[in-house]
Amino acid sequence: MASEFTANKPDGQLTARILLADDEPRLLTMLARLLREQGYQVTEAHGGKQACEIASKEVFDLALLDLRMPEVDGFATMTHLARSQPDCGVVVVSGESSFNAVSQALRQGALDYIRKPYDPEELLTTVARVLKKRSLLKAHEHIQVRLEKSEALHRYIVNSSPDIVFMLDSQGQFCFVNSKVSGLLGYQPAELCGRHFRHIIDERDITKGIYSLKDPTISADNPKTLELRLKSRGDGNNARHFEVTAFPIDPQTWPHAGTTQGNGSGKGARYYGTARDVTERKEAEAFINYQAYHDLLTRLPNRSLFQDRLELAITHARRNRQRLAVMFLDLDRFKVINDTLGHGMGDQLLQAVAQRLEKCLRKGDTLSRFGGDEFTLLLPSITDEEDARGIAKKLIDALRAPFRLGDHEVFVGVSIGISIYPEMGTSLDQLIQNADIAMYHVKASGKDGYRFYNETMSVDATSRLQMERDLRLALERNELKVFYQPQVCSTSDRVVGLEALVRWQHPERGLIYPGEFLPLAEETRLIGQVSERVLDQACQDAARWIRAGHKDLRLAVNLSPVQVEHPRFVETLLRKVRAHGLPTSNLEIEITENTIMNDLEQISEKLRELAATGVRIAIDDFGTGYSSLNYLHRLPIHTLKVDQSFVKAIRGGEDGACIVNAIVAMAHGLKLDIVAEGVETNEQLTYLRRLGCHQVQGFYYGPARPSANILQSLVKTRTAAPVF
Ligand SMILES: Nc1nc2c(ncn2[C@@H]2O[C@@H]3COP(=O)(O)O[C@H]4[C@@H](O)[C@H](n5cnc6c(=O)[nH]c(N)nc65)O[C@@H]4COP(=O)(O)O[C@H]3[C@H]2O)c(=O)[nH]1
């Protein structure tokens, strides 16, 4: 039970409550009067027994007790008071002056001893002193309790902080660290106290950490904030990122007393600091940064990072008079695979390609994904072109083996253009652009190879761009026309078929032949639109001629690989043919061996589907490609078209003639029709007739003509003169 001085007198003096216990009524009354005169609140007890009873009900600040009292003496009363009112002070006022009695009273807790008869002045002085002492003690206790509460609150706040809070001594050793360190890094505060702070800093940041505290400009008003990696306990590799703020503290201002509880007392502290875990933020920043400079699919540097590195490499090469190489790589057949097998497979393929390419490179080289199926490569220090040539060959070889994508095995090639600093460009843009131009020349000349840039290529590139623009316009303005070349029966001279051949009626350049614009159309994917136009027009024209009475007329249409490899090729083709009312049995599609071999499995299925509807299939330019007997009998092929280069060789027993012989024999053996292309002379015609090649096509019978000229030629038969 706490005893408080409950009221103040008007003059501000405390009014203490005093219990008097004496068995002599006269002395009791005198003492009570004396004390009351001083303003104290006095309660009188006649003997120890009554004192104990009163003390059980009322609260006192001080008890003045006689020792010798009947029934319950002063010692017993003290014992009772100590139990019931431990805060009540006791002063003994007794005639008993033996040493034993006095010392026992003091041992039992009496604060002072006044011997009877007492000097009133002396008694009042003692009472006032004891009360004052009691009051000071109470105040001290009160402050102590508040301090403890406050310290507990602060400790709670510090330990609940989301940050590590620490203090270091002048040597940089921990003298306090909050318990957050255990959750974030796994250390117990007690094991860190006394250890140097470098103990928890990642090796890479130790110098930075140590020098930061030595900075003469840091102060409480100007704390030092820096990012440090701190090691987790027991796992040096697993560092986390912290934003550490630290500043020196004036030791005079720091209360040195305190409990330790394992965290350290902060004694001797010279620096105070906090460490905020910013690992997640750093990781997010690192990821954003990575994303900004990398291609997430292949994990290769992206265009921006490549350009940064190239810029640096150029500066370095210029300063050291060195050379460097930039390569522009474009995959061959990627678009077809991507369209046919889907983008998921396409992505897998790009990843696999990137891995294979990377294996060919040295540390310091930068391979980047430039976009789509384009990659760029920087070789920062090469001695001469031979170095670049060696790498280019290695890259081409690396992609030669087939790639396994699910159940499919696919082949991709790569076309590589190379520019060398300083001979083939001195700036970033020039080097990349020239490598790109060189790459296009590889594509134009048959793909899967490499070329170094030279100045004549730029002219081509400019005209190529112009042509691409023109071709788009041509599609819009309907400048593409379909011409037809007859396929004639060599024995009857009757026109049995017409081959549709596209022409571009250019407003300025006149008639342009497909050899000039189809490769570009293939590269730029415009081939899809070009082919649709031709197919539409040709089906429409042929259907009209068939309706006009030429019901056996065969229409031969060339198809590009891009068309055939398209996933919905069969469906699209049949829809068009039927839309124009052309019987499928009157249509023959011409495809090259290379188109078939690009993906034998897929394409044979499509050809079977088409053949089942009556569409005929012809192999164009036969003899110039694989000429594999293996696929001939596995596919629904109706016609072989002998390439005109072999027909041209029918001149007095050249090898070409032998090839024609072989092809015709093979076609007979396989029961296939055969059409010889490029027949220009009577000699060739006679030779082919004798060989049993009954269908021919060529300038001998006339070139391809516009549709307006066709109908009349269909009714004519010829003996010696051309059809057209
Ligand atoms: N020297 C000579 N040449 C002759 C003779 N008879 C015909 N030619 C030419 O030989 C080519 C035959 O067509 P191809 O082998 O299918 O070769 C075609 C074909 O592969 C492609 N092509 C033409 N039109 C189309 C089309 O609409 N779509 C697709 N995908 N390709 C086409 O372009 C190639 C070239 O077509 P063209 O320039 O029209 O050239 C045609 C034709 O004009 C001759 O007696 N002597």
CATH class category label of the largest domain: Alpha Beta
Q: What is the second-level CATH architecture of the largest domain? A: Alpha-Beta Barrel
Query: How much is the average pLDDT?
Result: 88
Bound molecules: ligand C2E
Largest sheet geometry: 8 strands, mixed, barrel
Low-confidence stretches: 1-13, 256-261, 717-721
Total number of beta strands: 29
The proportion of residues forming helix, as a percent range, comes to 40-55%
Question: What integer value in Å does the Rg equal?
Answer: 53 Å
Distance between the termini: 131 Å
By DSSP (H or I, 4+ residues per run), the number of helices equals 26
Q: Kindly name the structural category.
A: alpha/beta
Beta-strand percent range: 15-25%
CATH topology of the largest domain: TIM Barrel
User: Looking at the structure, what is the overall shape?
Assistant: rod-shaped
Whole-number total of structural domains: 4
Lateral arrangement of strands in the main beta sheet: 20-21-23-24-25-26-27-28
The CATH superfamily title of the largest domain: EAL domain
